[in-house]
Design brief:
Layout (H helix, E strand, L loop, with lengths): L2 H5 L4 E7 L3 H9 L2 H4 L2 H4 L6 E7 L2 E6 L4 E11 L3 E6 L9 E10 L2 E9 L8 H6 L7 H12 L10 H16 L12 H23 L6 E3 L6 H11 L2 H20 L3 H5 L1 E8 L2 E9 H25 L1
Parallel strand pairs: 8-9
Antiparallel strand pairs: 1-7, 2-3, 3-4, 4-5, 5-6, 6-7, 9-10
Length: 313
């Protein structure tokens, strides 16, 4: 490849239009990226991916076990107009291209333009690197997933009001603070919060798999009960207040992810193997809506509210 060809490697530009204001579009692209990014096909961890998020000036993908892979660093954060990040998923920071996303009001919605540039940094492999982001299944397909979350659903397949209320009650209880030491063998407040956040990662992963029409899905809860995995989440947060914030963001993404599912996806059978106090309490296929919405709202989150209240008592 000649030097002139490298220098003129054009940016990849893709655009979409969403029926919402720029503020909402920017929020969906950033705060809820974990709900729409097609992680099973465009992620590092594949089916083990639990989410992606902007954290501390970085774009990070997380596995269901809390492992992390940094995709890039924020170079410009100008809500609700513009976002620029360095781009090196699965690579090193010194081998990064650059992605800029702009959000401009257009009619009764927002035009979102994504420009992927900086190919000249890759020398002779510039055009080969660029080719990976062109064509079917590349940036155009990714933006379709973004639009799916950015636009509000007029007639959602399931009412998520009870689930949202259950999360609100859980985080309100956590925010009250004043927790004491747990009984021997029980979890403290930080471990309860870490467990719920890790569980939300696992639930989000199932939602992504359903969107991509994956079959033979399985949900287990041993990882989100593992004390070492929970300890890593607690250390990452650094404080109970920060852990609550992380948990709220994970919950918002989990809700947004399940809101994408249609009736067939919600009714899809997922084999659930759930443990409590070291014993298997469920080991059978269940309709996903029963686990992700109804049992989460009526049993799982209320049980942890009681657990937190007991720690205060």
């Amino acid at each position: 490849m000649t030097e002139a060809m490298i220098e003129t490697a054009p940016p990849v530009v893709r655009a979409t239009w969403v029926r919402c204001a720029p503020t909402r579009a920017f929020e969906a692209f950033t705060d809820q990226i974990g709900a729409w990014w097609p992680l099973p096909t465009h992620g590092i961890y594949g089916d083990r991916a639990g989410g992606a998020a902007f954290e501390g000036g970085r774009l990070v993908e997380r596995s269901v076990a809390g492992e992390e892979s940094v995709w890039g660093s924020v170079l410009a954060w100008e809500p609700p107009d513009r976002l620029v990040v360095s781009w090196h998923p699965g690579g090193e920071p010194d081998q990064a291209s650059e992605v800029e996303v702009t959000f401009a009001a257009e009619g009764d919605g927002t035009r979102v333009v994504l420009e992927h540039r900086g190919w000249e940094r890759f020398g002779d492999s510039a055009m080969l690197k660029r080719r990976r982001y062109v064509g079917p299944g590349a940036w155009g397909a990714v933006l379709e997933h973004f639009a799916d979350v950015a636009e509000d659903r007029v007639d959602p397949a399931v009412d998520l009001g009870a689930l949202r209320s259950a999360y609100d009650a859980f985080f309100a209880e956590a925010a009250r603070g004043g927790f004491g030491e747990p009984e021997p063998g029980e979890w403290d407040a930080a471990q309860v919060l870490a467990h719920v956040a890790l569980n939300d990662l696992a639930m989000t992963a199932i939602a992504h798999a359903l969107v991509h029409r994956r079959t033979d899905l399985r949900l287990g809860n041993l990882v989100c009960q593992d004390r070492e995995v929970m300890a890593a989440e607690i250390d990452r947060a650094g404080s109970l207040e920060a852990l609550i914030g992380m948990g709220r963001r994970a919950a918002d993404v989990a809700i947004a992810a399940v809101s994408r599912l249609d009736e067939d996806q919600l009714d899809a059978l997922v084999h659930c193997t759930l443990h409590h106090d070291g014993e298997v309490v469920l080991d059978q296929p269940m309709p996903w809506v029963q686990i992700a919405v109804h049992l989460q709202a009526s049993r799982h989150l209320p049980a942890h509210v009681e657990q937190l209240a007991k720690l205060r008592g």
